[in-house]
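Just scan this pair:

***
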Amino acid sequence: MAEHRKSQRYNTLGERWFRDQFEAHLPWLEALDEHPKPLKDFLEEHPTRLLGERFELLIRFWLEQSPHFRLHASGVPLYDAGKTVGEVDFILEEVDSGTWTHLEVACKFYLGYNNSKQWHDWRGPNAQDTLKLKMDKLDRQLSSLETPAGQAFLQEKRWHAPAPALLMKGYLFHHYRDVLTHNPPSFSHPGYPAGFWFWLHEAQDFFRSEGWWVLLPKRSWLAPVWSLEGELEVLDNHAARGQLAETIHTYRRGVMLVAVERRGNMIEERMRGFVVPNAWPGK
């Protein structure tokens, strides 16, 4: 998302910022590829089944290890009269400039319902979460240090108020019949990662051309599929339809479906989408 339609109180980190960070951290990333044990150990020390928490842990690992930032606080609860009234994701300092930032992070996956621009029509795979609910919550979180509880925390630490910024990643999915005439949600970034979605009863029409598919478990949603042949089960159209039907009927939830290509002994993601129960999104 590029911004919140009701608020200009915070900065949304964009392409240039991410490109600069990638270039600055490329040597560190390459070294981590060669010797990933520190990251694996970190994730084992902080087990979670929640995708959002895993995303936050990865951001925390990066900020803690980066020579370009000082991470002063993470996951800070804010209290009012002994009760938790909020939480601050990260407070960090850029080493070169000395700039302090209050950073809130999110990684979300939303499906466009009714080919609408309205935030409330962009639903999570479970249909309970919406883009509107999330953006409004982020707006509140990004102003949390302006509240009495936030001010008390800053005074206790003797810190000046850091500038609030949003780091938001994820995917937006359009119904497969709307891909060529889709409407993005209002104020979305023009380069957002996109995919498709369809109801289970539309599977026969969707699987008209031959392809290879992977049903991607939730723990793997954060990265494109790129792996050795045999590490993931690769399905043809018939097998994919059968597994989709079985999984959705058993668990009553959306399933991430990834189209892959075979390249030698590797499989590589070509596009991704969701298949949802016929009753989705419900009332």
About this structure: The chain has a mean pLDDT of 94. Residues 193-276 form one domain. The helical segments are 15-34, 37-45, 51-65, 131-142, 148-157, 203-206, 237-251. Residues 12 and 166 are 5 Å apart (CA to CA).
